């Protein structure tokens, strides 16, 4: 009987620690440009990414590359891909920097990460984006030009940088996307879901000492039964409880 009890207690302990390791508020996407887990960047993060330096999924090298364009930039990405029509405005470029810093550096994406089918890759799905953030992004980019309505798969990468696919047409963002919500939810398909202000929502950038997205991620995790560092079991109390029960059955 005692042997069976030992096995039960041992399995309980193993299961609890296994669950505790699945902390969605301590995750980064599994890609080489991300850290394994969020951590502080003691040397700071470059420019727009500095909001996340106290706890970040990116290194300063990645943050710096986000602010470059073309060869040497993160993914060698070219934002100014319709120069014949108009160079991308500084206001629009700043909004993309904010989005890129959030996507690569934020420690708060974990609750929305999903594993892609038949792949080791991951992708966040339906992150609740603030309508205010979305509207500002659209307003600052609507008169700029792009040649695709899908920035995830709408490029020709054969030269090592993203160029417009053959047959694509450079149009204003407002011609590809009729409104802010359409742009924010489809430019990177499936990654964002715009929610009205007043609801639990994420923002791309902030200038406060406290990251407002920490609370958003923790609330979402709690509402969906996910483990977040804010609701971890207190292992000291758990250990005392298990020890007490174990001793009583000795």
Describe the structure.
The chain has 250 residues and is mainly alpha-helical. It has one domain (27-222). Helix content is 36%, strand content 9%. It contains eight helices and eight strands, in the order H-H-H-E-E-E-H-E-E-E-E-H-H-E-H-H. The protein has helices spanning 2-21, 60-66, 90-105, 131-141, 173-176, 180-186, 212-223, 235-248, and strands spanning 113-115, 122-124, 127-130, 145-146, 155-156, 163-164, 171-172, 192-195. The strands form four sheets. The protein has a two-stranded antiparallel ribbon. Strands 3-8 form a two-stranded parallel sheet. It has a two-stranded antiparallel sheet with strand order 4-7. Helix 3 (90-105) runs antiparallel to helix 4 and helix 4 packs across helix 6. The longest helix has 20 residues, at 2-21. The chain is globular. The N and C termini lie close together (10 Å). The model is unreliable at 3-20 and 232-247 (pLDDT under 50).
Instruction: Report the end-to-end length measured between terminal Cα atoms.
Output: 10 Å
Low-confidence stretches: 3-20, 232-247
Count of the separate structural domains? 1
Q: Roughly how many Å is the radius of gyration?
A: 22 Å
The major pleated sheet works out as:
2 strands, antiparallel
Quaternary class = single chain
Number of helices: 8
Q: Tell me, what's the shape?
A: globular
Portion of residues within helices: 25-40%
Strand percentage lies at: 5-15%
* Broad structural category: mainly alpha
Following the backbone from N to C, one meets helices and strands in this order, namely HHHEEEHEEEEHHEHH
Mean pLDDT, to the nearest integer, reads 86
For the largest beta sheet, what order do the strands appear in spatially?
1-2
Number of strands: 8
